[in-house]
Amino acid sequence: MTVSSTPQNLASNAARKGVHHRIGVTQELIVFLVSIALFAYFSITLDNFLSRDNILNLIRNVAMLGMLSLGMAVVVIGRGVDLSLVAVMAVSLTFSIVLANQGYAFSTALVLGLAFVIVVAIVMGFLIAYVEIPAIFATLAVSAIVYGLGRGVIATLDVNNVPDNLNWFLFLGRGSFLGIPIPIWLFAMCATALYFFLRRTGFGRFIYAIGDNISTARITGIPVRPVIILQYVLSGVMAFLAGCVTAASVASMNMRMVNSTLIYDVLLVVILGGIGLTGGRGGVRNVLVGTILIGLLLNGMTILDISYTVQNLVKSTVLLGALIVDALLNPRDEQTSQQGDI
Amino acid sequence: MMIAKYAAAAVVAGILSFGAAHAQDGMVDELRQPTLDSLAGKKVVFVPMSMSFDLPEGWAAIMQKEAKRLGYTLDIRDANWSTDTGTRALTQAITEKPDVIVVQNFDVASYARTLKKAEDSGIKVIQVNMKSSYQTDAFVGADWYGIGQYAANRMIEKCGKASGKSGKIAIIQGPATAAASVYQLNAISETLKGHDDIKIVSSQTGDWDQSKARGIAQTVIQQNPDLCGIIGFWDVMDAGTGAAIQESGKDIYLITSGGGNKTACQGVENGTFKEVISYDVEGQGRDLNNAIKVLLQSKEAAGAVKFALYTPNKLISKETMSTNSCWDLDQLKK
């Protein structure tokens, strides 16, 4: 069964397509144009900016952010939000590293870390889908619990180093294949897989349907609650993969990351790319556009040697701009807004 | 006359025998008991940035041991990477009126007022490693100026005209307002004055985070293929800087500083760092204990005597490294 098989949905889909088309082009176009402008500006003003190495570098440095954003995108499309991504990423990898340092084989430790992620995601998804706690509160609470577990139970120190001689693991962060760094390959693979999942599978379409109108989705016969749990499992797995890339890059995992602004950067990428917080819109392409713009900003500002505070100011201003554009292009209406959503 | 002579002899003999007996039993140390008494039962509160990294863990382990030995208490109130939580912990501590507060500042400004309030209410305050702009009774910690000066001089040596290298260096700082950043930066710019052969191509903050440091270092190295050296501000963060250097396959002189935890020695050993300036947490722990004991014994009011104990730096490179260059937290805790 597909979503568009009922007359109601055909109608709403057609209406949405019209809107979607207009919004997609406009929102993405703005970000795309800004990216092109920045790219042109940096190419002209900065030496070496256009070099192959710098471009690879630019993408490589946002690969982790991009992977987290893919996870966030799946959830936001289903009209949720996952604020626990960073905590889950940092703590699950810390868990694996601690286990490995206690003598477990690293592959076993990684599998256990992944299992931890999936259990957390299922619990969180259950709270949101069945207990019907708004996603923003449930994920925020779970984030705090996971971080607390990490700091209080799993490890005593923030930074835990990967055991020595794990070259195969470090390869994920430091190696390259055909001249392209492995993190970029992993990002590309995740993006492709998610693209096919969202566009070509029934479950993928269900997520759009739920994000678009949860009541309609339920009446249509979509197993709404299990699909919501699936969303959070997917975002958790993406967080775990992003964590692997991070840990492999610096041979350690730093739980302090949970206190940083990373989660807002992830939201920035998703919203900037044009995935409306009202759900049901956007896709992998939007994440790519958002990620590239952030990559350009970070890379350019680092080369220009702009101070961290000013960098944050620029990023925040861009986020605010994106939110304003989002609000103008995706106005709330009585049909789609509901109490407790974000 | 005879009687008087005998009497005198008896007195002398008596004195002599008393002296001999005294020598056999040793002498009572008049200072010891009052000192012990002045320490026992006192209360010390420690407010670190977070009990989750090597420095505070190390200090706490050493302070705890001494507190236990001498019978005063050491309470740890974790600021958990938040100045708000830290300020609350300090305010709470002030109402409890401990004898001494030991505090590690996040930056030079946040706690300044609260620390003054503590002193005004009669609590003696020791600042450890990261200073506030407000000077309290004691400062125990790294000599950031000296560290910056040494690092800058090493850069002149390794990258300047005499070396035949490009002279291009980069700096990976901590948070912009942290004591470690502001005083080191000042030292570096003072030292490099007049050295036109050294050019700072980038000075960015890694915010104490390895991933951020890695990203910055990678971009800077890519942008300046002839980069000669990097000064990092903390070894834990600069594990990321070192990873970027190793990934680039270039020979870049990375000098950083830290508490001298065993990871610093491992980093020097495996080539992540060329040199680590260690401010020796073990030594700092002993200095801290001494400062605590001095302040507990002192009859002066809080804020009356102000002193600083800057830690002598230990230099760790492949050439100077020995088995006791670094410490191990698990050992310290024993």
Output the keywords.
heterodimer, A: about 350 residues, mainly alpha, two-stranded antiparallel sheet, disordered N terminus, B: about 325 residues, Rossmann fold, 12 helices, about 50% helix, about 20% strand
What proportion strand of chain A?
A: under 5%
Strand order of the largest sheet of chain A: 1-4
Number of strands of chain B: 12
Overall structural class of chain B, as computed from helix and strand content, comes to alpha/beta
Q: What is the first-to-last residue Cα distance of chain B?
A: 71 Å
Within the largest sheet of chain B, what's the order of strands? 2-1-3-4-5-11
Question: So how many helices of chain A?
Answer: 13
* Chain pair with largest interface: A-B, 37 and 34 residues
Extended strand count of chain A: 4
Instruction: Calculate Rg of chain A over CA atoms.
Output: 20 Å
Structure, described:
The complex is a heterodimer of chains A (342) and B (334). By secondary structure, chain A is mainly α. In chain A, 74% of the residues lie in helices and 3% in strands. Chain A has helices spanning 7-45, 52-77, 85-101, 106-129, 135-154, 167-174, 182-200, 202-212, 214-220, 224-250, 262-273, 284-303, 308-329; strands at residues 159-161, 176-177, 180-181, 252-254. Chain B is an alpha/beta fold and 334 residues long. Chain B folds into two domains: 32-142 and 281-311, Response regulator (Rossmann fold, 3-Layer(aba) Sandwich); 144-278, 3-Layer(aba) Sandwich (Rossmann fold), CATH 3.40.50. Chain B has helices spanning 2-25, 32-39, 54-70, 83-96, 112-120, 144-159, 179-192, 210-223, 235-248, 262-269, 281-297, 329-333; strands at residues 43-47, 73-76, 100-103, 124-128, 138-142, 168-173, 199-205, 229-232, 253-258, 275-278, 307-311, 314-317. In chain B, α9 (235-248) links the parallel β8 (229-232) and β9. In chain B, α3 (54-70) packs across α11 (281-297), α4 runs parallel beside α5 and α6 crosses α7. The radius of gyration of chain B is 26 Å and the shape is elongated. The chains are: A mainly alpha (342), B alpha/beta (334). The A-B interface holds A 46-48, 51, 53-54, 57, 60-61, 64, 151, 156-159, 161, 173-174, 246, 249-252, 254-257, 259-260, 298-299, 302-303, 305, 307-309 and B 50, 52-54, 57, 81-82, 175-176, 201-205, 207-211, 214-216, 218-220, 222-223, 236, 239-240, 243, 246-247, 263.
